[in-house]
Amino acid sequence: MVAVHGRERVWKVFGVVIILLWWKTEGLVKLPENATVPAVFVLGDSIMDTGNNNNPTTMDRCNYRPYGKDFEGGIPTGRFSNGKVPSDLIVEELGIKELLPAYLDPNLQSQDLLTGVSFASGGTGYDPLTPKLAAVISLPDQLELLRQCKEKLKALVGEERSDYMDELGQFL
């Protein structure tokens, strides 16, 4: 009985510490009033993947239940979460858009590129063998997709506007 109460107390203290840390750090990084971020481009793994693994060739997919159960309408989207992932929260907090689309989403519109996309792929890693085993998008391949995206942006809005987005856009 004593061990149970000891564990409960540890968890309560841990919970209070987490809440205090969240409260203390929430909103520490704010943009200046006159600053804007036109676009966010994200590379990474499952933490930032918004649906790039939604193809039948990879083993690391999450476009099925229970993923997405807390998402709008309870629909699995390919996010490795039951709701939004950090890349969604970042673009939402910056006021760019509510959700960051996956670059490989077949429904992606050219206009979506203007405000950013995610190239992240769940299951990838720094080790070049990791993405090969899981048939996911490696970091070098994500960089290649980013290069292709920049070319599409140049064709869409011209080189000057594309360079402006490179300067002020956020690359995560």
From TrEMBL:
Q: What would be one Gene Ontology cellular-component term for the protein?
A: extracellular region
Coiled-coil annotated residue ranges, if any: none
Which residues belong to the signal peptide in this entry? Answer: 1-27
Please provide, alphabetically and separated by semicolons, the GO molecular function terms listed in this UniProt record. Answer: lipase activity
User: What Gene3D superfamilies does its record include?
Assistant: SGNH hydrolase (3.40.50.1110)
PROSITE patterns xrefs = LIPASE_GDSL_SER
Q: Which InterPro entries match?
A: GDSL (IPR001087), GDSL_lipolytic_enzyme (IPR050592), Lipase_GDSL_AS (IPR008265), SGNH_hydro_sf (IPR036514)
Protein name per UniProt: Uncharacterized protein
What are the GO BP annotations of this UniProt entry?
Answer: lipid metabolic process
Q: Which UniProt keywords apply?
A: Signal
Family listed: Belongs to the 'GDSL' lipolytic enzyme family.
Which organism is this entry from?
A: Acacia crassicarpa
